[in-house]
Amino acid sequence: MVFKWKKPCRLRRHIGGVKSAHNQAFEKFENLKNPQNSIQASLNQQCEQVKSEYEIRLTASLHCLRFLLLQGLAFRGHDECEESSNKGNYLELYIWYADKNDEIGNVVLKNAPKNNKLISPKIQKEIINCCAKETTKAIVEDLGKVIERFLGIVHVADTTSLSLKEAIIALLNEHSLSLSSVRGQGYDGASNMKGEINGLKTLIMNETPSAYYVHCFAHQLQLTLVVVSKKSKDCGWLFDTLGDLLNVVGVSCKRKDMLREKQAETVVKALEDGEIESGKGLNQELGLGRPGDTRWGSHYKLILNVIALYPVIRVVVDSIGNDARSDDDARKADHVSFAIESFNFIFMIHLMKKIFGIVNELNKALQKKDQDIVNAMSLVSLTKERLQDMRENGWESLIETTTLFCDKNGIPIVDMDDVFVPPGRKKRGRLDTTNYHHFRIEVFLGIIDLQLQEINNRFNEVSMELLNCMSSLSPLNNFSSFDKNKVLKLAEFYPNEFSIVELLSLDDQLDNYIADMRRSNGFCGLKDLGELSMKLVETEKHQVYQQVYLLIKLVLILPVATAGVERAFSSMMIVKNRLRNSMGDQLLNDCLVTFIERDVFIQVSDDAIMKRFQGMQNRRGKM
Question: Contact, 316 vs 259, CB < 8 A?
């Protein structure tokens, strides 16, 4: 259709200027056609901004809580009101974080909606719970390497074996794990744990026969040291003397400061004389910690520090004896001084240093999170061999070390051919025991034999058929200990994994397996089952020898030590401190999981935690 205007000038007048009604209407029409300028677009843009601000606030809260969780610090303050000068670790850190970052500071605290600040105690606990949940999820889903992990703590009304079993089942169910899949148990020697009739290990094995029990190796090793220190009269005298020494030197802060000052003076003098060197990590201050029967390695550490600080200790004890205000303190100091300046003390402390030093290597190895049962058995055997070698060949070197130490510190050296006189006693008539017989036969050989006897008695599990069969899988020395019959016997211990038909198949598979392993250069230098399992996966031979690989996994998951439990107790002392001794069980559990398994928690992404937080319930804010 064609329009012919007779008077087009009127049209131009109608259009008019820039601000005419026609042009304003035309501009509004064009804006209406543009979707970016619509009301819905404006509302959506506003929603996106709200979501962005909400995400910034949630991320800031999470970052502050992450820091406090990793450091094991308290969150709440005694007074968290606006006027308080100390609102607690969490709020103070949050305020500092907002002050240092304008992007965060513009949308948090006073600049945030009053009903959506994300800093309340309830929100804190929910975020912490999400952190713990994601950490345990990562632990459960982390497959491929056998390593001890902390899953959680459970409050129990009593410590009967039945209550403990129910608590364990509840914890496993919470993480979608089944008791029927348990293939190992590890506890200390308490009767409610290892009782043959109604003990926890028996109740679990009644339902899961393949959940074999192993008494914590590290706990057994500590028991051997405790027994030796109490059964041997001479060893008992040494630790009684060390106890008296600690009572004299460490009874007050003033005396501890005296020890610290004398130690510093000795280091300065040694540096001036050129006897020692200075450098990072050198000449650290040492202390005298009291040993405990349940603190692994504490006896050995005390002995090392006493030997290192011996000249300083003598000076401090003499000063205490001379300056004591009471006769009782002076008498105690003189008694300790007389004891530690005897050849008997020097000999005993160097003997126990040597014995405990051998055992301490095993102690540290057993506390590793990825230790396997076969390697642990090998380490126990190595410890016994080293003690036996010391028994046969260590006397001369011990006497030489003791003599040099006595010469250096001005301690009288006894003649080995003279008659032995017990410390603190006078000669009464003629005695038949010479110093050589006492120190060589009664003390040196006697204590080593007692230590060997206790290790053999405490580690009687290593003679069990199950553990003997496990050693046949060891890759050491090009699989020199491989025994096909023992491996087949090992498979019979796990009827749920190996049926009769699968045992027959395993018989044939083992011949191919051992031939392949011994001819492959990549499997020659392996040291333990952990390396073997990873090498099988790396070369994809775990798919070829599936049943052998399953046996190796079963051996690896059998627990060696409960060092993780001891570490959890130590961590609990840090997390549940005086500032938050009334925290609930759930919060304590969440804090412990993230603190103990910090290496896993660090790897958990913020997005995963925030996604779980959003999914817990309907939130005012959206992401």
Answer: yes
Q: Is the dihedral of CA 183, 189, 192, 197 positive or negative?
A: positive
Please tell me the number of Cα atoms within 13 Å of 73 on its side-chain side. 16
**Distance of alpha carbon 78 from its chain centroid, rounded?**
31
Query: Which string of DSSP letters, residue by residue, matches 97-159?
Result: HHHH-HHHHTTSGGGS-TT--S-SHHHHHHHHHHHHHHHHHHHHH--SS-----------S--
Q: Select from 386, 341, 335 the least CA-distant residue to 362.
A: 386
pLDDT tens per residue across span 209-245 = 877 776 666 667 777 777 777 778 888 888 888 888 8
Q: Angle at CA 386, nearest 5°, toward 381 and 391? A: 125
DSSP state of 176: T
State the average pLDDT over residues 33-50: 63
- Cβ proximity of 586 and 397 under 8 Å: no
- As a whole number of angstroms, the distance between CA 616 and CA 547 comes to 42
Cβ neighbours of 477 (radius 10 Å): 9
The three-state secondary structure class of 186 is strand
What is the mean pLDDT of the segment spanning 27-37?
A: 71
DSSP state of 434: B
Residue 361: which pLDDT band, with cuts at 50, 70 and 90? confident
Pairing of strands 213-215, 185-187: parallel
Cβ partners under 8 Å of residue 418, min gap 6: 434, 435
Q: State the DSSP H helix or E strand holding residue 185, giving kind and residue range, or none if neither.
A: strand 185-187
- The pLDDT value given to residue 281: 46
Q: Kindly state the average pLDDT of the residues 342-354.
A: 92
Neighbouring residues of 467: CB distance < 8 A, sequence distance ≥ 6: 373, 377, 461
Instruction: Report how far residue 419's alpha carbon sits from residue 209's, in angstroms, rounded to the nearest whole number.
Output: 61
Mention every residue, 6+ apart, whose C-beta is less than 8 A from residue 531: 475
Measuring CA to CA, how many Å separate 258 from each of 290, 329, 337? 18, 16, 16
Rounded distance between C-alpha atoms, residue 307 and residue 290, angstroms: 15
Q: What is the mean pLDDT of the chain?
A: 80
- CA atoms within 13 Å, Cβ hemisphere of 316: 26
Angle between helices 606-616 and 39-71 (to 10 degrees): 110
- The rounded percent of the chain whose pLDDT value lies above 90 is 15
pLDDT tens digits, 451-508: 888 887 776 554 456 667 777 888 888 888 888 888 888 888 888 888 888 888 888 8
Count of all residues that appear for the chain in the document: 623
497: left (phi over 0), alpha (psi -120 to 50) or beta: alpha
Mark 36-63 as b/e (b = at least 16 C-beta within 10 Å): eeeeeeeeeeeeeebeebbbbbbbbbbe
pTM for this predicted structure:
0.66
The pLDDT, as a whole number, for residue 343 is 92
